[in-house]
């Protein structure tokens, strides 16, 4: 399993880094393709709980958030752009309830509404929208995406390796049986160190050592929370992986689960602290 995971990273990472470097339309296409597959995987998982979710409209609404972030100005600086984003959330809310009301049934419909909202908001708004916003930050967008994925994925790798080597105390057995307390702590430490290292080399004029450490800690904590959240979804329907797109890693939802929480957290942390405007 470890060598399959490693080989997948070696083969895919150069292409991903190249697209992150080039940005613009190529990055939009990358994110769009990722969230499309993630939403399909999510709907497949949700299908185990309810057969009332057709993936077509959820996929369209999910992808729409990526295009909103790409084509509209910064929503924190432009009122009209902010209103478009808020309107999109209202559209998602109306769709989730209206599609269930149209069936004129009660049994299981609230679960269906909740599943629709969860998938579109987490994958579309939280992940796609804020990842595009981060990449479009003037001058440092590429560096911010590298900080985001570098901190999370290195922390995840550290947690996996240390947990596998010395982990003895289980973290949350019913949700993720293989995760250990030792691995979790290692993931936090590695995440903080990688964040400091990356900021020192590629964001030295933007983030201080203190901010780099805080970002590393926050991303590591919420990255593991995102990982556990998707594990909860999978355990609920009784599957190990959300898909099989990436050998050794499962599906796109498995690989990008941490980013769903961390992309908006990084964006708003940097905004609220005045680091980006």
Mean pLDDT: 84
**What about the largest sheet?**
2 strands, antiparallel
Strand content: under 5%
Compute the number of helices: 9
Basic shape: globular
By helix and strand content, what is the structural category? Answer: mainly alpha
Strand arrangement within the widest β-sheet reads: 1-2
Indicate the low-confidence ranges by residue numbers: none
What's the gyration radius in Å?
19 Å
Q: Give the distance, in angstroms, between the N- and C-terminal Cα atoms.
A: 43 Å
* Number of DSSP E strands: 2
State the helical fraction. Answer: over 70%
User: SSE string, helix = H, strand = E?
Assistant: HHHHHHEEHHH
Structural commentary:
The protein is mostly helical. It is built from 9 helices and 2 strands. Helix 1 (2-22) packs across helix 2 (24-46) and helix 6 packs across helix 8. The protein has a two-stranded antiparallel sheet with strand order 1-2. The longest helix is centred in the last third of the chain and has 29 residues, at 209-237.
Tag the structure with descriptive keywords.
single chain, 277 residues, mainly alpha, two-stranded antiparallel ribbon, 2 strands
Summarize this structure briefly:
The chain contains 9 helices and 2 strands; from the N terminus they run ααααααββααα. It has helices at residues 2-22, 24-46, 56-71, 79-101, 109-135, 141-166, 181-202, 209-237, 252-272; strands at 170-172, 176-180.
